[in-house]
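Repro:
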Amino acid sequence: MHNKTKIVVLHMKELIYTAIFAALAVLFIILLIFMFGKKDSDEAMETMAQAAYVPGVYTTSLTLNNNVIDVEVVVDENHINSVRLVNINETVTTMFPLVEPAFDSIAGQIYEGVELSNITYDQESRYTSLALIQAIQASLDKASAAKVSQNGM
């Protein structure tokens, strides 16, 4: 048996191109794994980002003729659960008879899912309704600000 020695000639240019393409293929595969491989922490961050409010009870004071009424808003992460007037006394209901009916109308619309910017009200209780809507919006702003401060920590 006679063995012939084979000589293989490799061009340096071809070796370099092959090494570059192999390295790019490995980087591409790693990139795909990072892009499409979701982790539990990514899903938790997405859930936090989608939440509109920090759950809790938020109160805003509304002053009517030196009488203070508190507007209390209870929210969970995405919804307004309840809206109510707190510390309303007989003096306020006597001097401002449109407060409670206007508030009941606004609260009913909120419970139906109407956004604050789309709430309708009677023209005779326009100013009362606008003051109540502003107080509710201030409470919701507090809930949103609490979310921002929690995420910033």
